[in-house]
TrEMBL record:
GO molecular function: SNARE binding
GO BP terms: endosome to lysosome transport; intracellular protein transport; lysosome localization; lysosome organization; regulation of synaptic vesicle exocytosis; synaptic vesicle exocytosis
Family stated for the protein in its record: Belongs to the SNAPIN family.
Keywords: Coiled coil
A Pfam family: Snapin_Pallidin
This protein's GO CC annotations: BLOC-1 complex; BORC complex; synaptic vesicle
InterPro entries on file: Snapin, Snapin/Pallidin/Snn1
Name by which UniProt lists this protein: Biogenesis of lysosome-related organelles complex 1 subunit 7
């Protein structure tokens, strides 16, 4: 009885286009051989076979994630303090208006009230800018979390695969 060997004897995993791919390795194929590909489409196999790049990407992700988390927390704290400041400015403006209305003699508080209103508007604009920045940070945080989950799934598949191939 003749047993034919499969054309692909091994698999490699590569990260490309934000996804992990299984790349079959042909029997007798030298992984370190130089490519003769001349176009981008033909050169995608070489792009996948770069463990140094993957290690570097994981390291960068490990460095960036704590910074993004810390920045996100600081933006959140700044937004909270700006909202508190906005409320204080509003209550102070109301108190000044009450004092101005209650005074027998007219005290020129309109200039101060206008300054407080301008400060309130600037706080509102800054709060909107911070909210947009926080939304972008949340998107980055979510994509980092997705990537971590994706890599864990792939690592679990890679770890489980040798066990299933040895038992069959």
């Amino acid at each position: 009885m003749l047993i034919s060997l499969p054309k692909y004897v091994s698999k490699q995993y590569c990260f490309q286009d934000h996804l992990w791919w299984v790349v079959p390795v042909e029997l007798g194929m030298d992984l370190d051989s130089e490519s003769t590909a001349t176009s981008i489409d033909e050169n995608t196999e070489n792009f996948c076979e770069n463990p140094t790049r993957d290690t570097l990407a994981e390291g960068l992700m490990g460095l960036i994630k704590p910074t993004v988390d810390q920045l996100d927390e600081r933006v959140r704290a700044t937004r909270i303090s700006q909202l508190e400041l906005k409320q204080c400015i509003e209550s102070l403006a109301e108190e000044l208006k009450k004092i101005s209305d209650a005074q027998q003699t007219t005290i020129d508080l309109d200039g101060y009230v206008k300054k407080l209103i301008n400060a309130k508007q600037r706080v509102t604009v800054l709060s909107n800018i911070l909210q947009n920045a926080q939304e972008r940070l949340n998107k980055v945080h979510m994509s980092i979390d997705k990537e971590v989950v994706r890599r864990k799934v792939i690592l679990n598949d890679v770890i489980e695969e040798p066990h299933t191939s040895t038992s069959t």
